């Protein structure tokens, strides 16, 4: 807003970052993360001790150079992984929304923006809408996981501003509360010149992450951007995660360090005894201060035995994990072709953690379900339509997937034939189809000659589209009527039907409650596995300190726990409660920005790259395109990584222990002087690090099988088989052209054995019906029966019946 007074409040930009490191914070944070590892801390201590000439029996750089190399390799790996996070953040931050910026910035970073059916990239106080009664409808699945439509209503003071000229002359100021994490609360005041102050509440705010639905455009003032938005206020700081195997390895290293201290202590005592026995003048070069010699010898033996703890373990693990991450990225069975999305390991430090997951926390909307429904089957007057028992066995899965939403999956011609032939059930069929086209909360919108149904839920959208495919087309809605149009073959005129939503809702609710009560009574008579369902309001009290433990015990006694209408912070609190009190590996998976908190809190976070933005993917440890891919990620890659990493760790410990058993035997059995001298030459130590593991691995037959036989067999199958037995169309055409033969004369045969020339075969391939998946691609989501149910529990908003009655689709919408 414009004005002359200065503002002292500094507003942040709209940039959001989910990366672990920055340019200035990388070095200190990376070193802190590395020093947390017991092995790195130990070898740093050894490297410092080796700089003391009178103490170290080895060179000054014997440990320092390998340690620097290990840290360098780990640093390069972290830089590569964090660069991918920065790149994904830039994709989100620089993403352009469908809409226009009315006044790019007017006063001290206060924006007025104009949006049109887009994902809000900032929180804004709305001024005016295109819809009746200055209302718009938002879907907040990114915030609280709900696909329910929530109603937002503009201020009556500014609702009449419908043109650029009126908005350009606005002058005043907006006062609001500071940034906070409360999604359902907002307090502010709009002070326009020559007008009384107007209070602002949650009904007048579009939060970052919300999506406009059933609304052509809105005009608003930006109040929160970037990390000040409620979405980011509910997110948590990206943690530095460590796997359980790494923690166990640290404990094993501490045990080895204890053994090393015992060995050094015994050797120091032996050296002190030997020095005391050899105090004659022949040993004039030995110091007579026994206590000082003891401590010098102790440090010397610690340095001498330091390789009992394998310094190569860390760099070996880094290489193994990085390779395992590449295997995940290269897995073609977790590649989703519809959106060209492969699986991606955003961090390689948690590969083995995937194989130990005990508790799984999953978002529902968009993760477990896609909110896609098809009208396939119905029963009218005791007759079932839409089933094809004779075709079920013959139709493949691809045939079912090829059914688009425009050509509804309901393809039983018997229903239409019964109407045309005046079957005795014809009146019931017409009444049934009329109810399908009338009894709903769908809003029709016209784009040219096409009607687009903005459904209140997926089932409503499927029913309305099903009625349309059968001849009853829902065309318009007014505040007092619903208009449908019947196709001429039914001999029905266009007519108007009244719709009473309230009575229908009450009857449906009572019928549902009656059914549930009867089933509940039956269930109480027998022992069943229990599930717990709890909403966000109740969860607020269940997570309080007094009853938290009781709630956890109750939840753990159930087979499944379902939490509905919960905030992002509550999701992360639930995961954190189980993570701390149960001491089990947890995994959280989600696809929306409201899942970021629990994804970062869990031991392992998995993001699904879908239509709800990239926030969950950018904040996750692993990203996949479909929930079904989680099975292979956990049971194949996770289990294999856990098995391989643990064997690698044990093998590294084994080879070093074997080496230093020889060192101790040489020290005690051969010399018997307990001198702090390295009896194994550096060449032996260096070669043992590389040759000892190599010989052991090369003795295994599976190594040679995987190195030579398996790749050779795969190449033979791919190259020889496909080039001779199963040639592609392109390869055959290229071969015919190379032989200077007319490709049109080439004779092929189709699946039924009929002969086809090459061009006919090409046409059948080009013009065949391409199956379209009902997956999560953007192109599909725009046409599927994907609806949004109106929320009944929002405080201070209009009821659903008023929402439906306020619509008048026959009225001309104002344009900017």
UniProtKB/TrEMBL annotation:
<keyword id="KW-0479">Metal-binding</keyword>
<feature type="transmembrane region" description="Helical">
    <location>
        <begin position="294"/>
        <end position="317"/>
    </location>
</feature>
<feature type="binding site">
    <location>
        <position position="363"/>
    </location>
    <ligand>
        <name>ATP</name>
    </ligand>
</feature>
<keyword id="KW-0067">ATP-binding</keyword>
<feature type="binding site">
    <location>
        <position position="571"/>
    </location>
    <ligand>
        <name>ATP</name>
    </ligand>
</feature>
<dbReference type="GO" id="GO:0000287">
    <property type="term" value="F:magnesium ion binding"/>
</dbReference>
<dbReference type="InterPro" id="IPR036412">
    <property type="entry name" value="HAD-like_sf"/>
</dbReference>
<dbReference type="Pfam" id="PF16209">
    <property type="entry name" value="PhoLip_ATPase_N"/>
</dbReference>
<dbReference type="InterPro" id="IPR008250">
    <property type="entry name" value="ATPase_P-typ_transduc_dom_A_sf"/>
</dbReference>
<feature type="binding site">
    <location>
        <position position="365"/>
    </location>
    <ligand>
        <name>Mg(2+)</name>
    </ligand>
</feature>
<feature type="binding site">
    <location>
        <position position="363"/>
    </location>
    <ligand>
        <name>Mg(2+)</name>
    </ligand>
</feature>
<dbReference type="GO" id="GO:0005802">
    <property type="term" value="C:trans-Golgi network"/>
</dbReference>
<keyword id="KW-0812">Transmembrane</keyword>
<keyword id="KW-0460">Magnesium</keyword>
<dbReference type="Pfam" id="PF16212">
    <property type="entry name" value="PhoLip_ATPase_C"/>
</dbReference>
<feature type="transmembrane region" description="Helical">
    <location>
        <begin position="648"/>
        <end position="670"/>
    </location>
</feature>
<keyword id="KW-0547">Nucleotide-binding</keyword>
<feature type="binding site">
    <location>
        <position position="595"/>
    </location>
    <ligand>
        <name>ATP</name>
    </ligand>
</feature>
<dbReference type="GO" id="GO:0005886">
    <property type="term" value="C:plasma membrane"/>
</dbReference>
<feature type="binding site">
    <location>
        <position position="460"/>
    </location>
    <ligand>
        <name>ATP</name>
    </ligand>
</feature>
<keyword id="KW-1278">Translocase</keyword>
<dbReference type="InterPro" id="IPR023298">
    <property type="entry name" value="ATPase_P-typ_TM_dom_sf"/>
</dbReference>
<feature type="binding site">
    <location>
        <position position="591"/>
    </location>
    <ligand>
        <name>Mg(2+)</name>
    </ligand>
</feature>
<keyword id="KW-1133">Transmembrane helix</keyword>
<dbReference type="GO" id="GO:0045332">
    <property type="term" value="P:phospholipid translocation"/>
</dbReference>
<dbReference type="InterPro" id="IPR023299">
    <property type="entry name" value="ATPase_P-typ_cyto_dom_N"/>
</dbReference>
<feature type="active site" description="4-aspartylphosphate intermediate">
    <location>
        <position position="363"/>
    </location>
</feature>
<feature type="domain" description="P-type ATPase N-terminal">
    <location>
        <begin position="7"/>
        <end position="64"/>
    </location>
</feature>
<keyword id="KW-0472">Membrane</keyword>
<feature type="binding site">
    <location>
        <position position="365"/>
    </location>
    <ligand>
        <name>ATP</name>
    </ligand>
</feature>
<keyword id="KW-1003">Cell membrane</keyword>
<feature type="transmembrane region" description="Helical">
    <location>
        <begin position="690"/>
        <end position="716"/>
    </location>
</feature>
<feature type="transmembrane region" description="Helical">
    <location>
        <begin position="253"/>
        <end position="274"/>
    </location>
</feature>
<feature type="binding site">
    <location>
        <position position="492"/>
    </location>
    <ligand>
        <name>ATP</name>
    </ligand>
</feature>
<dbReference type="InterPro" id="IPR023214">
    <property type="entry name" value="HAD_sf"/>
</dbReference>
<feature type="binding site">
    <location>
        <position position="595"/>
    </location>
    <ligand>
        <name>Mg(2+)</name>
    </ligand>
</feature>
<protein>
    <recommendedName>
        <fullName>Phospholipid-transporting ATPase</fullName>
        <ecNumber>7.6.2.1</ecNumber>
    </recommendedName>
</protein>
<dbReference type="GO" id="GO:0048666">
    <property type="term" value="P:neuron development"/>
</dbReference>
<dbReference type="GO" id="GO:0005524">
    <property type="term" value="F:ATP binding"/>
</dbReference>
<comment type="similarity">
    <text>Belongs to the cation transport ATPase (P-type) (TC 3.A.3) family. Type IV subfamily.</text>
</comment>
<feature type="domain" description="P-type ATPase C-terminal">
    <location>
        <begin position="618"/>
        <end position="665"/>
    </location>
</feature>
<dbReference type="InterPro" id="IPR032631">
    <property type="entry name" value="P-type_ATPase_N"/>
</dbReference>
